[in-house]
Amino acid sequence: MFLIFFLIALSITAGVHYYLYRRLVVGPELPPPWFGIGRAALIALGISIPLSFFANRLLGLHATRVLVFPIYVWMGLMALFFFSFLGLDVLRAVLVLGSRVSGHGEWIGSPERRLFLSRVVAWTAAGIVLPTAGVGVAWGLGKLVVKRIEVTLRNLPRELDGFTIAQLTDLHMGPMRGGRWLSEVVKRTNALGPDLVAITGDLVDGTVAELATDVEPLRELQAREGVVFVTGNHEYFNDLLGWMEHLPKLGLRVLRNEHITLRRGKVAVDIAGVDDPTGRRFAPGHGTDLGQALSGRDTGRPVVLLAHQPKIIDEAQAQGVDLVLSGHTHGGQLWPFSYLVALSQPYLKGLHDHGGTQIYVSSGTGFWGPPMRLGTTAEISLITLRAG
């Protein structure tokens, strides 16, 4: 599966870089030596992306952190250039078609006009992409907000009104995020004084041997009812068995298609957690089983479900779940990828009512790939439950 994914990614990367070569180098007819420099740069940048994945495995995560940072920034720039040129090419096609229909095709058909348009497109794309990427990096690396959400549950007992859950998700500890950043996240989470901390997957992008020191701050998370965790898809790519053994040592309770009951005197609320569906393809005995997670619970109690991917919502609604907390989407992370994410997930971010079952989709606490965010902000979510 990894080989298939790698070959598809390699083909897409090569195609995109060739497209950028045509738009940034060939179309504007860069003079020597800039033509050769541009071509060589794009070839090197194209090769660097697949090499960065192997560098992590061959050299070790910590040894490659400085090395991969500019490569991951280029991944973001590459995407922004691609979509910018795509939009500008559509506008240019409309302009050419309009000129021909109006009988002025010769105005735009001359070599001088075509060269002029190619240079305008290239400079316009650069003028859009470079400052946008700068803003994206600043937001990706530096902006983390606390989002406070109140959710009313019809059958929540009055005694549990005001119960708070701090949700962390998609931290993606690994090549781009380390222990110093996580310490700040833990500090800000503890300052909220939550009743429960829920980590809804994609915590790590590396092995226990590589990241044990970086994730050590998780031990300092404080909540009256403890810290719970469910797997995301990335847990199945990186030392799954090692993490399943290590996380409980840090004080995290891993919920694997099961639920726990949190009591306040004579009243209670259930917290259920399911494996990410990716687990079914990667590890025997893993994968989403909502029926098992809810089995044996008192259906008169409210239940909050922790599930990495929002697409569980239909099944959750069918089984009477009150609230789902998810992540996975990163809120799109880098516009316009939000439109692509929306093709595979029913909700991108925020609170939604789905036939009586509510779902909150966090935009994620970290990021994956390019250290950029556009159109979305990294968050620590504080969900306050209210009695109906």
Oligomer: single chain
The CATH topology of the largest domain is what? Answer: Purple Acid Phosphatase, chain A, domain 2
Largest sheet: 6 strands, mixed
What is the number of domains? 2
In the sheet with the most strands, the strands line up as 1-12-2-3-4-5
Average pLDDT reading: 93
Strand content: 15-25%
Question: Span between N and C termini?
Answer: 47 Å
Radius of gyration, CA atoms, in whole angstroms: 24 Å
CATH class of the largest domain: Alpha Beta
Number of helices: 12
What's the count of strands? 12
Structural class: alpha/beta
What is the overall silhouette? elongated
CATH superfamily of the largest domain: Metallo-dependent phosphatases
Helix and strand run? HHHHHEEHEHEHEEEHHEHEHEEE
Poorly predicted spans:
none
What percent of the residues sit in helical stretches (DSSP H or I)? 40-55%
Q: Write the CATH architecture name of the largest domain.
A: 4-Layer Sandwich
Features:
388 residues; Purple Acid Phosphatase, chain A, domain 2; six-stranded mixed beta sheet
